[in-house]
Write a structure and sequence with these properties.
- The chain has helices spanning 4-10, 14-24, 83-91, 113-129, 144-155, 170-177, 179-185, 195-198, 219-228, 246-266, and strands at residues 27-28, 44-50, 53-60, 68-72, 76-77, 95-99, 137-142, 160-164, 206-211, 233-238.
- By secondary structure, it is an alpha/beta fold.
- The protein has 2 domains: 4-161 and 172-199, Rossmann fold (3-Layer(aba) Sandwich); 205-264.
- Strands 2-3-6-4-7-8-9-10 form an 8-stranded mixed β-sheet, sandwiched between helices. It has a two-stranded parallel ribbon with strand order 1-5.
Length: 273
């Protein structure tokens, strides 16, 4: 973190404040370290337009009778850091479409709150052009990606929404981690990602995962979101998990929660006797 004096100096100019936003909120990497082929997965390189930007993603096919996961990743790295996660989804039979926000990986531009929302809408538009229907999709987001998936669910409701390590808002995160810096310079950050204000407008089945030892997003934030959300909803606490190791620490228990949720939401009704 920069010193308070530097932060105050930066905030005298709007361009500098925009640069600060990039420093504190978004941590993109442009280099792709691998592709899904490294995990033995078939995949298709996808490009689609989002405003003036060209966005890159991967479509990994699964069982056509099962839902597709529209994967909104967190604020660091790029899609190549999520290959293990994609593989584990695919082992459940799920198709996966993951994309890089503008400024991440091969995608052009610079990230912003509205930009990430627009990129998710562009990803959904591409999938719909291929014949995928939102009601047969799960919007999945982790951390900042949870905010992106939540906003997308408000605009175009999916079959289900899964949020992992979601925070209540950027403001609440600023107060939690460094209240003095937030008082002095928090006003300069553009992104708000106000999940707490939005969650009660979600009208689809919801599953929230949270690590009990998360040092980035305090577990109480996920509980706040869950308490405000509408039914049907499920909260799954992963004992001992931090922010980025939920499915590793959770192991089979984590994936059993996914299977239970899939069965509840997407299982075909039994024929009448």
């Amino acid at each position: 973190m920069p010193s308070l004096l530097l932060l105050l100096t930066l905030c005298w100019s709007l361009p500098a404040c925009a640069a600060m936003e990039q420093h504190f909120i978004y941590f993109p990497e442009t280099r792709l370290y691998a592709t899904p082929a490294a995990a033995g997965l078939e995949f298709e390189n996808i490009w689609f337009a989002s405003g003036d930007e060209r966005i890159h993603g991967w479509l990994v096919p699964g069982d056509p009778e099962k839902p597709l996961v529209l994967f909104c990743h967190g604020n660091a790295g790029n899609i190549s850091h999520r290959i293990e996660n994609i593989d584990l989804f695919n082992r459940l039979g799920l198709s996966v479409f993951i994309f890089d926000y503008r400024g991440y990986g091969k995608s052009s531009g610079k990230s912003s709150e509205e930009g990430t929302y627009q990129d998710a809408l562009g990803a959904l538009g591409f999938l719909e052009s291929r014949g995928y229907k939102p009601e047969a999709m799960i919007y999945f987001g982790r951390s900042v990606g949870a905010a992106v998936a939540l906003q997308l669910a408000l605009e175009v409701p999916p079959g289900a929404l899964v949020l992992e390590s979601p925070f209540t808002s950027i403001r609440a995160m600023g107060w939690h981690h460094n209240p003095l810096l937030w008082i002095m310079a928090g006003w300069a950050l553009g992104p708000r990602y106000d999940n707490l204000d939005k969650i009660e407008r979600v009208k689809v089945p919801l599953l929230i995962f949270q690590g009990s030892a998360d040092t980035i997003v305090p577990p109480k934030m996920s509980k706040e979101l869950f308490e405000r959300a509408n039914e049907p909803k499920t909260f799954h606490l992963i004992r001992g998990a931090n922010h980025n190791d939920t499915y590793d620490v959770g192991g089979s228990d984590y994936w059993d929660a996914w299977k239970d949720f899939l069965n509840q939401v997407f299982a075909s009704p039994r024929p009448e006797d």
